[in-house]
Design brief:
- The protein is mostly helical.
- Helix content is about 50%, strand content about 5%.
- The protein has seven helices and two strands.
- It has a two-stranded antiparallel sheet.
- A hairpin with a 5-residue loop joins strand 1 and strand 2.
- Helix 1 packs across helix 2, helix 1 packs across helix 3 and helix 1 packs across helix 4.
- The longest helix has 17 residues.
C-alpha cells in the first residue's frame, strides 16, 4: 500500500485549499506555487479529485478549484482512494506486486491484521486535521531543492 507522489501532492494541494476560508476558489497555478508543486502534475491529480467529488472546478470568469465540502467532512481515506484507486487498502504494504491472498508473502498475515486499523485511521482522519499542520505543506519542495543542491556537478 505504498502511496504514490500523486497522493502526496494531492494531499498537499488539498491541505492548502483547506486552509483558505470556506468557498474560496483558487486557480491551479496559485495552489501549485503556494505548495511548490509542478502545475501540470497537480492538474492531473485535481481532475481525479473533481471526478470523485472532493473538489469542484469552475470555468469562465471565476475559474479555479474549491473544496466540494468542508475540510472537516473530507476524509483522508476518500482522497487516497480517489487518487490510488478503491483497492488501495487491500494491497500489501510489503511486496504489493507479488503478494495476494492466493500467493501470500511472508508477512501477509501481519498486514491482514493491521489493514483494518489503517483503514479506520484514514476513515476517521479529516482533511482539516491534516491541514492544521502547516509545517508539512512545503516539505517536498524543500526536499527537492536539497536533493538538487547536493548532486555532484
Amino acid at each position: 500500500m505504498k502511496l504514490s507522489k500523486e497522493s502526496q501532492y494531492g494531499l498537499m494541494g488539498l491541505a492548502y485549499l483547506a486552509q483558505q476560508p470556506p468557498g474560496t476558489i483558487l486557480q491551479l497555478s496559485q495552489v501549485a506555487e503556494a505548495v511548490g508543486l509542478p502545475q501540470m502534475f497537480l492538474a492531473k491529480i485535481f481532475r481525479k479529485l473533481t471526478v470523485h467529488g472532493i473538489l469542484r472546478s469552475f470555468r469562465g470568469k471565476e475559474r479555479g478549484y474549491s473544496l466540494a465540502k468542508l475540510a472537516r467532512e473530507i476524509r483522508i481515506k476518500e482522497i487516497v482512494e480517489a487518487i490510488e484507486g478503491p483497492e488501495v487498502f487491500e494491497r500489501c504494504i510489503f511486496w504489493s506486486n507479488h503478494c495476494s491472498d492466493e500467493n501470500p508473502c511472508m508477512l501477509h498475515d501481519v498486514w491482514r491484521e493491521a489493514r483494518p486499523k489503517v483503514w479506520d485511521l484514514m476513515a476517521n482522519l479529516s482533511l482539516a486535521e491534516v491541514a492544521a499542520d502547516r509545517s508539512r505543506l512545503r516539505t517536498s519542495r524543500t526536499t527537492r531543492r536539497r536533493a538538487r543542491s547536493s548532486k555532484p556537478a
